[in-house]
TrEMBL record:
Top-level taxon of origin: Bacteria
Record region (Disordered): 60-89
Protein name: Transmembrane protein
Membrane-crossing residue ranges in chain numbering: 32-52
Biased composition (Low complexity): 77-89
UniProt organism field: Ramlibacter albus
Keywords linked to the UniProt accession: Membrane, Transmembrane, Transmembrane helix
Amino acid sequence: MYLILVILAWLYVALMMAVAEATSANGTLAGAVFTFFAYGVGPVSLVAYLMGRPARRRARERREAEASTAPDGGGEAAADPVAPVRKEP
């Protein structure tokens, strides 16, 4: 929960930096866009990806555990790989 709050706060700060860049006498709109992506979107996406790693690992382990306990999902070979031949009456 705190991570989302920190991410939103950082994006707000980066947006305000971009607005200051765009409205500055020497600033440009292209510089503002670059500022927002360089100081806002880039670092936030990297941090969110790295901080989300444990959750992705837990989800992967949970999927693997569900697949191994599911019927016919254990990955084991059948007891009789060839069906028995029936004799004609």
